[in-house]
Amino acid sequence: MTKVKNLPYRANVGIMLINDAGKVWHGERIDTPGAWQMPQGGVDEGEDLLAAAYRELEEETGISSEHVELIAQTDDYLTYDLPKELQKKLWKGRYRGQKQMWFLMRLTASDDVVKIDGHKPEFSQWRWGDIDDLPGMIVAFKRPIYTTLIKEFSSYIQENAK
What we know:
The chain is an alpha+beta fold. It has a single domain (7-111, 122-160), classed as Nucleoside Triphosphate Pyrophosphohydrolase (Alpha-Beta Complex). It has helices spanning 49-61, 84-87, 134-137, 143-160; strands spanning 9-18, 24-29, 36-37, 40-42, 68-73, 78-81, 97-107, 123-129. The termini are far apart.
């Protein structure tokens, strides 16, 4: 039996989407009421990371790449380990957690382009919020990622808020 610490991380992308006021998009997960997060998802084999980010953004929010502007991305992957109780349930126990490349994007269209009721809805509702509120909304094991994102992206958000 493979020890969890020897398992690889699953490749993933995440999107911090801001509006013109510098507020951050987040949605409440359908499968975990009370847990809010930013769009994120797995990278297909051989898929370009930015292409995966645009795909995930559209799948989860209905927002296409033509309605966003890329501002920045993290310098490197950010990783998290799954809690023990989830390690065997998710991804058939093949991964210890995820390594995520995060992209900061700004919505260039109206909120009308947001459609969370796509073919496989992941969010029950969504809203714009303050960046500093994000760590308190996410599940505990992902909080360090969100704290790092705040440090990495805050200056870009201030520069890009209108």
